């Protein structure tokens, strides 16, 4: 178990990688600590709800603080095609570029939008106003 006063996503990731099974706030209750000790299991990872709120808030702040102009014109084109749900192979054909080049743009987009998947990148881009939400009838 790990107690912390300043949780960051990086610290949580490091704790999980080290085999920590519970991540708790230093100012948490004794009852919560005892309950966590009773239910701690090897291979599981428990994060106290108050820390989850802090981590979520920090993550949203990082996403919204990123400048939206950091995507190039071509990255925006690839992003728009990603939002349509087409595959990288098809996107490359549409844009007249190689699949490897298109994959490079996707990786760059994921990094700039702090996303781990193309879907998450589309969601983050929509929140930032980089993509227009189109309602389906």
In short:
By secondary structure, this protein is mainly alpha-helical. The chain folds into 2 domains: 2-65, no CATH class; 68-127, Winged helix-like DNA-binding domain superfamily/Winged helix DNA-binding domain (Arc Repressor Mutant, subunit A, Orthogonal Bundle). It has helices spanning 9-17, 30-39, 49-65, 73-83, 88-95, 99-112, 118-127; strands at residues 2-4, 22-25, 46-47.
Describe the largest sheet.
3 strands, parallel
Intertermini distance: 50 Å
Overall pLDDT metric: 80
Which strands sit side by side, in order, in the main sheet? 1-2-3
The amount of beta strand, in percent, is 5-15%
N-to-C series of helices and strands: EHEHEHHHHH
Question: Uncertain segments of ≥5 residues (pLDDT<50)?
Answer: none
Radius of gyration: 20 Å
Total number of strands: 3
Counting DSSP H or I runs of 4 or more residues, the number of helices is 7
Indicate the structural class: mainly alpha
Question: Considering DSSP H and I runs of 4 or more, what fraction of the residues is helical?
Answer: 55-70%
When the domains are counted, the total is: 2
Coarse shape? elongated
Keywords: DNA-binding
InterPro entries: Sig_transdc_resp-reg_C-effctor (IPR016032), Sig_transdc_resp-reg_receiver (IPR001789), Tscrpt_reg_LuxR_C (IPR000792), WalR-like (IPR039420)
Protein name: Response regulator transcription factor
Pfam families: GerE
């Amino acid at each position: 178990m790990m107690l912390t006063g300043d949780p960051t996503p990086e610290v949580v990731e490091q704790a999980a990688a080290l085999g920590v099974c519970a991540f708790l706030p230093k100012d948490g209750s004794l009852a919560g600590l005892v309950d966590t000790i009773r239910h701690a299991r090897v291979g599981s990872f428990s994060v106290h709800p108050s820390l989850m709120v802090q981590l979520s808030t920090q993550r949203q702040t990082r996403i919204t603080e990123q400048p939206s102009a950091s995507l190039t014109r071509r990255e925006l084109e690839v992003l728009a095609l990603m939002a349509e749900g087409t595959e990288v192979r098809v996107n490359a054909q549409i844009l007249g570029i190689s699949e490897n080049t298109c994959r490079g743009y996707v990786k760059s987009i994921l990094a700039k939008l702090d996303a781990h998947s193309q879907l998450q990148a589309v969601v983050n881009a929509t929140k930032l106003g980089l993509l227009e939400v189109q309602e389906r009838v």
